Here is the input.
Amino acid sequence: MLKVLKFGGTSVGTIDSLRNVKAIVEGLDAPAIVVVSALGGLTDKLIATANSSAEGSEHYREEMVNIRKRHHDIINELVPDDKKGSVTEKVDSLLNLLEERYQGLSLIKTLPVKTLDEIVSFGERMSSVIVAAIIAGAEHRNSLDFVKTEKWFNRNIADRPLTERLIKETFRLPLTNHIVTGGFISTDRDTGEITNLGRGGSDYTAALIAAALDADLLEIWTDVDGFLTADPRIIKDARIIPEMSFVESMELCSFGAKVIYPPTIYPVFHKNIPIKILNTFNPTAPGTHISDNVVGKGRVRGVSSLNNTAMVTMSGPLTANVAEINSRAYNAMARNGISVFMVAQPSEESSFSIAMPSGDSEKALEQLVLEFSPELQTGELRSIDKTDNLSVVALVGEGIKNVRNLGNEIVAALKSAGIDVKAISAGASETTVAAVVPSDSVKDALRVSHSVCFK
Ligand code: ADP
Ligand code: ASP
Ligand code: MG
Here is the structure.
């Protein structure tokens, strides 16, 4: 049985949590692959310090003292004596490079994207070397060597075929020892420059490895007892979901459930490799099992919310021609690398809306005006406008397709709680009902939705 285990930032954040990681991995009955994040909170700190250095501040000197101490304390406490010297040397050389980068930024007073990408990579480069030394008999592999990205508009996305080939070469099966590697970080396939898979991307690294090696199971070890019916930071009585389908987890995560980074699910889903969500701080809890084979499809499996959303709305007679407007709008967005995450039916008649991340709304508006300029001239379209400061609340469950009028039920509940529902998803997905609401009422909207679904 081949398992890939991913431990997030809080799981590798302290001496105590690392003791749990060590016990979990050393307790396995077969060699496994372990993917780790940077020490909890470090990525945020690395970014904040890069920003302040680029403003000319020398605050990085103080931060470097803390960052060094945090890593050294862990090495001193947990790395066996015979490896302490070599691990300290590796980590120190990374720390020195990091400090040089900050010093450079404080002199040039700008923050080039590639310098920021290099800076954030130090987190996983250091944590993976340390964790490999903590786990008895484990080997280390450098993920910069085998996770490759390509440019896609202004993003870096994984080059899946190349990465798959390199993973197969790097992790020869059957494994003879545990192998530890860093999540999140990668290199550009053309330039060799350091890149990453996006915030929260360690989950995705683990999924790419699991899929390339046809692993039997992907375990995501985090700091909660499983996938919950809603974000526990907002909904205090959220419950553990014992089982869910790939599609349900994919929908919940793309609508904001932070427990798994959204691109993670697709590669393992495609290979039918189940995912387990488990708690490093409570390792015997059963967690959540995500697979293709789910019993008891309830009505709604979970609810989630996504902030920083914008909506572009087109009005006029052309919107009655749903097929045409849909495909032209989608194509215009796809050509510009804008991911539309829902098609919405606004409360107003004869209009058509699409929702996208706020950062893309300006460009989306511009492109739609361009695409539909003939119709704007003839009057077939009256207007194309954008609305910012929105959020989406999503209700997800494979059982939803058998429930009639859930959309109406939820809109009624939100409205009676005084929430201004801007739009509701137009049934693009059979598993999700999504409502667009003003950002300042998203928490209330989530509470109302959760209580309607989980009475
Ligand atoms: P890690 O560092 O292990 O990757 P994350 O912080 O990325 O952990 O994800 C785990 C966190 O996700 C939890 O601590 C929890 O606060 C948050 N979360 C949001 N929505 C959910 C949900 N539906 N179920 C479980 N956790 C959730
Ligand atoms: N360390 C990275 C982040 O904080 C990646 C991860 O934790 O998954 O975003
Ligand atoms: Mg995470």
Notes: The chain has a mean pLDDT of 95. Residues 35 and 206 are 6 Å apart (CA to CA). The two ends are 40 Å apart (CA to CA). Residues 8-9, 37-38, 43, 123, 183-184, 199-202 surround aspartic acid (ligand 2) (CB under 6 Å).
